[in-house]
Amino acid sequence: MNSKVLGVVLLVAGLCLLAFGWNASDSVADSVSEGLTGRFTDKTMWFIIGGAILAAAGAVRLLTGRTARA
User: Fold this and answer.
1) Collapsing DSSP states into helix, strand and coil, what is residue 70?
2) Whole-angstrom Cα distance, residue 4 to residue 21?
3) Coil, strand or helix at 67
4) Which regions of the chain are under pLDDT 70?
5) What's the confidence (pLDDT) of residue 69?
6) Phi and psi at residue 36, in whole multiples of 5°?
7) Residue 41, Cβ density class (10 Å: 0-12 exposed, 13-18 middle, ≥19 buried)
8) In 3-state terms, what secondary structure has residue 48?
9) What is the DSSP string of 31-42?
10) pLDDT tens-digit profile of 49-68?
11) What DSSP state is assigned to residue 27?
12) How far is the C-alpha of 37 from the C-alpha of 44, rounded, in Å?
């Protein structure tokens, strides 16, 4: 697979996970959990952390990746 294509796929997947995490943080259950414990739920945190890691990996892959030569 071309390095640029992989970078785009990782970046898009990461942004999608970040969006899911952002939406999950606005849910009623997460608001109650945050109000009582001061933290988001584990599921929300995994979405945000995973999305940030994938987005960063995709951006690095896009910026530093080499294209294949025929």
Assistant:
1) coil
2) 26
3) coil
4) 1, 65-70
5) 56
6) -85, -40
7) middle
8) helix
9) HHHHHHHSS--H
10) 999 999 999 999 999 866 55
11) S
12) 14
Which helix (H) or strand (E) segment is 18 a member of? helix 3-25
Please give the pLDDT value at position 66.
63
Give the other-Cβ count within 10 Å of 7's Cβ: 19
Q: Where are the domains of the chain?
A: 3-64
Cβ proximity of 13 and 57 under 8 Å: no
The two structure tokens encoding residue 37: 């414990």
List b or e across 44-62, with b for residues whose CB sees 16 or more CB atoms inside 10 angstroms: beebbebbeebbebbeebb
* Amino acid residing at 26: D
Q: How far is Cα of residue 2 from the mean position of the Cα atoms in its chain?
A: 21
How far apart, in whole angstroms, are the C-alpha atoms of residue 19 and residue 64? 25
